[in-house]
User: Which sequence fits this backbone?
């Protein structure tokens, strides 16, 4: 039911872990739904220098989390503005229809982390 | 890669003896059992023999058996058929929150039709309370439908006692015995049930065939109107190969029941002990003793069930989960929720359901492979960090589960 790319990212997720001194953290989902994604950023001169995630969830949740970190790594904050959940799913060669609306939250986690970063900058 | 099948509560393989018994009715004996000519005579005899065999196994009369297409159809026929036939007497039905969807969806449908349904809860072990059942009964109660054994946890309900309560109040009692049949003895003379649902493919028979036992005197309004088949209670030319296979499979299941039970309990006990010993934060779900011998429902806290299933599948192990992600409907197990489990526990539940072909080697394989799988998923889980206080507390979004 999952594409090879999803299974690859599920088996070998990229950028799993936590950042000490993260500049921004985004958490989306909740335990009742069965998906929680936590994504952290290190930002230098408006560029995402490092990104890590931790996810509780199904295969799709883990694969989308991993993929979004790949899409974000090294990018300018403006560049990733257009990254949506659909972009992430596409980069994984698609997700089963039922998963498009539940476990596909990774881009939301990225944007939440960026928002958190921007808020921290203002302090 | 070795394949290990631990999902026997979902379906079972057809036994070779069952398959062999079915083949003639897909080849030479293709006639219609209702035909009086030469082509129908062989099939008619086979149909009568199968019905008699099943009746003997259930200790009932052949006229009390209706063959159907599935357990779901039997449940529908029992529940809607009774509701419609008893409509003038009342409109109240009692069931439980942990029934199979074939029962729950049928009850929901009847609610829209003007019937009232009481859904009894269960305790933390997944057990119902007979006192609650008694106090739920009203003058309007026409039907009690309660499963024999739960498909997710294997918990066995006190069917004889429930039947006794129903009988005293002159209420029709239906039990969905799809998971129980073949694993628990069913004697219609002592079970106190008016209607019993059984399915073929859960007991090593073919898919597409089920039966409804209808005690003499109990009336069900047909769902499928047609010819005189099944004594005018279910139209449609009989699926003879399926019915013959069902009868053979049921016969074998009962013949080997005692031996299988010992084998299954041995495997399950070792699995539960092995996993509990090797993995921290594991919870065994369901009543410890009043449980089918083959079913283990285990929660691996702080990880999600589908990711565990995917990991197991890659090793050739087939099991199932109560996680929302595996249901297709995005709803987590209604059974585990009714038992009061937290999301961290119900999303992390795996059901291992053993069967005839499983060996102790299979069990040892799972006990060896499961700890690193759970450890890997936990190392990725923010909930695990919160639990260990190595990660910051998480504030969850209020967003609904479907975005």
Assistant:
């Amino acid at each position: 039911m999952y594409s090879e790319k999803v299974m690859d990212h599920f088996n070998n997720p990229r950028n799993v872990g936590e950042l000490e001194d993260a500049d921004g953290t985004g958490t989306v989902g909740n335990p009742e739904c069965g998906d929680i994604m936590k994504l952290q950023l290190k930002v230098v001169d408006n560029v995402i220098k490092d990104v890590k995630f931790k996810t509780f969830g199904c295969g799709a949740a883990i694969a989308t989390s991993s993929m979004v970190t790949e899409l974000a790594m090294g990018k300018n904050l403006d560049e990733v503005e257009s990254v949506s959940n659909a972009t992430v799913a596409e980069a994984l060669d698609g997700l089963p229809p039922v998963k498009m609306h539940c476990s596909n939250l990774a881009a939301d986690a990225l944007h939440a982390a960026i928002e958190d970063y921007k808020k921290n900058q203002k302090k | 890669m070795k394949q290990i099948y631990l999902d026997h509560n979902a379906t079972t393989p057809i036994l070779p003896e069952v398959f062999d018994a079915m083949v003639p009715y897909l080849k030479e004996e293709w006639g219609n059992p209702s035909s009086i000519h030469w082509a129908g005579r062989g099939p008619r005899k086979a149909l009568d023999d199968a019905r008699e065999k099943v009746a003997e196994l259930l200790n009932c009369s052949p006229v009390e058996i209706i063959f159907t297409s599935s357990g779901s159809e039997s449940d529908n026929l029992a529940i809607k058929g009774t509701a419609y036939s008893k409509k003038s007497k009342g409109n109240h039905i009692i069931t439980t929150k942990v029934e199979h969807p074939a029962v729950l969806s049928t009850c929901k449908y009847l609610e829209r039709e003007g019937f009232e349904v009481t859904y009894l809860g269960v305790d933390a072990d997944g057990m119902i309370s007979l006192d609650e059942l008694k106090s739920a009964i009203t003058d309007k109660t026409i039907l009690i439908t309660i499963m024999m054994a739960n498909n997710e946890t294997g918990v066995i309900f006190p069917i004889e006692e429930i039947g006794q309560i129903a009988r005293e109040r002159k209420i029709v009692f239906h039990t969905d015995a799809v998971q129980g049949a073949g694993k628990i003895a069913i004697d219609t003379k002592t079970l106190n049930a008016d209607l019993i649902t059984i399915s073929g493919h859960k007991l090593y028979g073919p898919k597409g065939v089920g039966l409804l036992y209808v005690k003499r005197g109990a009336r069900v309004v047909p769902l499928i109107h047609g010819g005189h088949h099944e004594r005018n209670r279910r139209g449609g030319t009989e699926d003879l190969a399926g019915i013959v296979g069902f009868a053979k499979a049921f016969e074998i299941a009962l013949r080997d029941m005692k031996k299988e039970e010992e084998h299954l309990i041995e495997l399950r006990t070792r699995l539960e002990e092995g996993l509990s010993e090797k993995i921290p934060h594991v919870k065994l779900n369901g009543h410890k003793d009043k449980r089918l011998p083959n079913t283990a429902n285990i929660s691996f806290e702080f990880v999600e069930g589908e990711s565990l299933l995917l990991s197991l599948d890659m090793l050739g192990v087939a099991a199932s989960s109560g996680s929302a992600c595996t249901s297709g409907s995005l709803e987590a197990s209604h059974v585990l929720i009714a038992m009061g489990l937290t999301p961290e526990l119900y999303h992390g539940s795996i059901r291992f359901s053993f069967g005839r072909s499983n060996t102790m080697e299979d069990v040892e394989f799972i006990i060896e492979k499961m700890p690193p799988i759970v450890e890997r998923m936990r190392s990725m889980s923010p909930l695990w960090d919160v639990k260990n206080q190595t990660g910051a507390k998480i504030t969850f979004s209020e967003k609904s589960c479907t975005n």
About this structure: The CA atoms of residues 48 and 62 of chain B lie 8 Å apart.
